[in-house]
Specification:
Blueprint: E1 11-16, H1 19-27, E2 31-38, E3 41-47, H2 57-83, E4 87-93, E5 96-101, H3 106-112, E6 149-156, E7 159-164, E8 169-173, H4 178-181, H5 186-194, E9 200-209, E10 212-221, E11 231-232, E12 239-240
Length: 250
């Protein structure tokens, strides 16, 4: 978020082609380091002599806090009273919830809380379709309208996969290129979870070093069932937050 940017960390970077100019920059008290790119090209990194604090940091902080408050209020004040123990939280992000709900008719239940939803993306023939809350702030939208998610595997933060009733699938893995993700499936994520198997991926990338571009073959960890941010229960499916009172008994 731009408003949370720390401008005190900004630095000046200057490309120099003259030896005398390079010596002048290096003698300055703001000098940090240099890099030689060629016989007649040097880059000099230096600190700024002044910093203009014109970004409202408080605005970014408050925005994130309000977003968290909206998520918590919706989950505990709207969803929890509605679905009770028939609902389980699978995953959450800054502005989204992925829930496992046991019910006879999900869309009938959603109709009861339609005033909290933006259902404008539902097919016009669907009885939940309504443009009243279209693009209204604070209203929740179904990511797969009229196409419920039937399979979900969450390995760790920002690493999950799901499939819908109409065979739409989505694979997510932070740091894994799309070319590798599109070759994966929910079954591969599931196998990684229950077999405790780490999957490696290989891909070609273009990297820049000293202002020179080159192709590079990269091999890195892809899917990993090791989640160091949550306490994994013996069933290898459910987790608890560290510090939860149930951890000792489990």
């Amino acid at each position: 978020m731009r408003t949370l940017m720390n401008k005190r960390r900004h630095k000046n970077f200057t490309l120099i082609t003259n030896e005398n100019s390079a010596a002048t920059y290096i003698r300055k008290p703001t000098f940090k380091q240099f890099a030689i790119f060629g016989e007649d090209l040097v880059g000099v990194l230096s600190m700024k002599t002044s910093v203009l604090l014109d970004s409202p940091i408080y605005a970014g902080m408050v925005t994130l806090d309000i977003a968290k408050l909206i998520m918590y209020e919706y989950y505990y004040n709207v969803l929890k009273p509605k679905f009770g123990n028939n609902m389980k939280l699978c995953m959450t992000d800054t502005d989204s919830l992925l829930l496992h709900i046991k019910t006879d008719d999900l869309y009938c239940d959603l109709f009861d809380i339609i005033d909290t939803l933006d259902t404008s993306n539902y097919p016009s023939s669907h009885y939940l379709h309504d443009n009243t809350n279209k693009k209204m702030l604070g209203k929740f939208k179904d990511e797969s309208p009229a196409n419920p998610i039937t399979k979900f595997v969450g390995l760790r933060a920002k690493m999950y996969a799901f499939e819908t009733k109409q065979n739409y699938s989505k694979n997510v893995g932070k740091g894994i290129p799309y070319s590798c993700l599109k070759e994966m499936s929910v079954s591969i994520y599931k196998n990684s979870l229950f077999s405790e198997k780490i999957t490696h991926v290989e891909f070609d990338t273009i990297e820049s070093k000293n202002h020179e571009l080159r192709m590079k073959r990269v091999r890195k960890v892809g899917l990993s069932p090791f989640d160091d941010k949550r306490f994994l229960l013996p069933d290898k499916v459910n987790t608890l937050a560290y510090g939860h009172y149930k951890i000792q008994s489990s």
